[in-house]
Amino acid sequence: MRISYNIFHVKIFLVAAALIVVAFSLTVSHSLVMGLEHEERSRMGVWAEAMRSLNNAGENTDLSLVLKVINENNSIPVIVLDSHGQCQTFRNVPEISGNTYNDSLLSAAPIGRQWQQAGRCIKINLDSGIKGDYIAVCYDDSLLIKRLSWYPYVQLFVVLLFVGIGVFALMASKKAEENRVWVGLSKETAHQLGTPISSLMAWTEMLRESYPDDEFIPEMSKDVDRLQLIADRFSKIGSLPELKATVVNDTVEHVVQYMDRRTSSRIEMRAELPGHDVTAMMNGSLFEWVLENLSKNAADAIGTERGSITIRLIDMPDRAAIEVQDTGKGIKKKDLRNVFRPGFTTKKRGWGLGLSLARRIVEEYHHGRIWVKASEPGRGTTFRIELKKAVLKA
After folding, report:
1. CA 130 to each of CA 92, 126, 321: distance values in angstroms, whole numbers, following the listed order
2. What string of DSSP letters covers 243-276?
3. Which of 28, 115, 178, 290 could form a cystine bridge with 120, CB 3.0-4.6 A?
4. Cβ distance 309 to 295 under 8 Å?
5. Alpha-carbon distance 371 to 198, whole Å?
6. What is the mean pLDDT of residues 34-60?
7. Which residue pairs from 293-297 have beta carbons closer than 8 angstroms and sit at least 24 positions apart in sequence?
């Protein structure tokens, strides 16, 4: 819980830091773009005045300064239109095409009129003696401003990418630590069980020698063997178990027989099997643990009422499907997404680790799938497991 609490706060910090960086970047970039746009509009004003001077120049007018101003604009796209909307000249407009200069002027005119309609235009009245005679200096943002306007979004993408990588790394770290806790807890449990089990096995042998006809001693021996099996299961957590071709029918029958002797007489244990053997790649000991866990949860869901638990084996073309169906109280819709989460439980007692461990065994060790196929409050729940079938050599 402490790990999850810390990781949650780290994620909140990363997201908050990303938002602050993005907000600051957007503010600075917007301010910079607005400043550059104002500067370019001022330059266009000077350029327009130079154009008017050029158009009104006489034979003795010194045009050196005017031509210098006009020729120094190497970045701002500009198109000069006359009062009839025809292009007179243009600069820095790469999208204009044409085989001749006149064709280029014709191609530039519509672009200039678009800029004029967008308000990117400075109108200069001419001293030609003709009423309404003017030129319109139409311009667009320079390439630098266009790039700067996209910069915040690029930065936003980069920041979100790094935040995503950071969150993914944190989740992977959390998962790895959870795995270490699982493995450590399981192996420590197996180790702690080892000594008393060995002692019980020795005492059982002594009782069998002293009371060879006692009918209860064989049952005690079965329970000791069962404890040894449980310890062996715990010891396998954290290491890849050996998978081999196993007849699933036998595994299901064994679990049904075992659980039938250990559940209430009011609960009927059933096995629904096909008329032929279904073989899948599995570790029999661990997979029995999964079915037993699902059956115990089903028995708890039925409680003191009458009901039934059915373990159904379905033969599919390339998979073996096992369903554990009960007639218990069902699972609420809001809890369905959490049933496999470690620590989640609706019982008053228990750690909520059974289903999480079952999913780990099915998905990580057997490369299969497990999920809640159906659940309805008051009607029962069905869990479904699918495993890869074994390919048997002829």
Report:
1. 30, 8, 92
2. PEEEEHHHHHHHHHHHHHTTS-TTEEEEEE--SS
3. 115
4. yes
5. 37
6. 74
7. 293/354, 293/355, 293/357, 293/358, 294/324, 294/355, 294/358, 294/383, 295/255, 295/259, 295/263, 295/269, 295/324, 296/259, 296/354, 297/354, 297/355
pLDDT average, residue stretch 332-343: 81
pLDDT given at position 238: 61
Q: What is the pLDDT of residues 153-190, one digit of tens each?
A: 777 787 778 777 777 777 777 776 666 666 666 666 76
pTM of the model: 0.52
Q: How far from the centroid of its chain's Cα atoms is residue 322's Cα?
A: 28
Taking a C-beta distance cutoff of 8 angstroms, is the pair 283, 243 a contact?
yes
Angle formed by the axes of helices 143-210 and 2-55, nearest 10°:
170
- Whether residue 306 is predicted with pLDDT greater than 60 in this model: the reply is yes
Among residues 23, 47, 43, 46, which one has the least CA distance to residue 35? 43
CA gap 32, 145 in Å, rounded: 9
Which of 166-175, 310-319, 343-352 is least confident? 343-352
Long-range contacts of 17-24 (CB under 8 A, 24+ apart): 18/159, 18/160, 18/162, 18/163, 21/155, 21/159, 22/152, 22/155, 22/156, 22/159
Give me 24's structure tokens: 């600051």
Q: Would you state the pLDDT for residue 383?
A: 95
In the chain, beta strands by DSSP E: 78-82, 87-91, 121-125, 134-139, 244-247, 267-272, 279-282, 307-315, 319-326, 369-376, 380-388
CA–CA dist 329, 124 (Å, integer):
84
Torsion, CA 158, CA 160, CA 165, CA 167, rounded to 10: 160
Q: What amino acid occupies position 145?
A: I
The rounded distance, in Å, linking the Cα atoms of 217 and 224 is: 10
**Terminal alpha carbon distance of the chain:** 52
Q: What phi, psi does 148 have (nearest 5°)? A: -65, -35
CB 79 within 8 A of CB 138: yes
In one-letter notation, the amino acid at residue 259 is M
